[in-house]
Write a structure and sequence with these properties.
This protein has 325 residues and is of the alpha/beta class. The protein has one domain: Glycosidases (TIM Barrel, Alpha-Beta Barrel), CATH 3.20.20. Helices cover 32% and strands 19% of the residues. Helix 3 packs parallel to helix 4 and helix 9 runs parallel beside helix 10. The longest helix has 18 residues. The chain is globular, with a radius of gyration of 19 Å.
Amino acid sequence: MNSTGFNFQWMMAWQEGRQPELADERALDFLAKHGFRFARLTCDYRFWTRDFDYLNPIESVFESIDGYIEACRTRQIHFCLNMHRVPGYCINRPEIEKHNLWLDREAQDGLVFQWEAFAKRYRGIAGDHLSFDLINEPPDVGQYGMTREIHAALIRRIVGAIREIDPARPIVIDGLEGGHIAIPELADLDVIHSTRGYQPMSVSHHKAGWFKGWEGHEPVYPGGDWWGQAWDRAAIHEFYAPWREVGARGRTIHVGEFGCFDQTPNDVALRWLADLFSLWKEYGWGWGMWNFKGPFGIIGHHRSGARFEEMDGYMVDRDLFELMV
């Protein structure tokens, strides 16, 4: 899977009474016209459950996902179904969960059951059109009781359950520590390994309100100081060395998320993103930008100095777009 595209949030951040959004077909038309062939949906399982009842999903909600898949399929866009919030865990506000995915059997059983339900529902859809991304951005080792051993065993269990139902379904596993750390102990599994394009986060997340790690670090690229070192193309290449090693063992690597929050100076953002794109092209990796429209996207961000041009009814960051195509 070396396709490129964007993340969409049509079924994310559930709250009482909120319904799934319709597929943004205008955005998908833009993707198809300009050669983007990847759309990753980040979902919140609470849309199809109530009161942490993991084993009795509201299947009528899945009709929205049916529509997303079909809207992508008709445009020859690969659709990646990602569980952004799973029973017992989310990288955002995990404390609101009733159970702990790494410690509680109820959450693990619930997650396996729900992926089995998706496998049964979609087993007739070709792998070119649909993949399953199992758990978005697992935490750091030691957080919430997660260990590499617990995580590997859970991934193997989910993959085995899906493959019992749908042997050919492409399956994606995210790296640890928010997607950044490779998992070579799972390189024997025939799955796609999903990394991230956010390092150094002093550049990608400058002034992001939900991430305080940028404080005390200037958004400088090349150069700066993050994790005790300056960053440039060579440093990013070295950061991806463990991922390239997993790829050398026959596994596909895909960048499931990347982007630059719009408070980073535009010239810094473009220099950094240019190096990311050139490296991924060199490696043969596909990618999915977070997001299409918004503070990380090619449309709707507010980076001072960006050059916007009208394109297919959107005001598009032209310089960023040129880096991507």
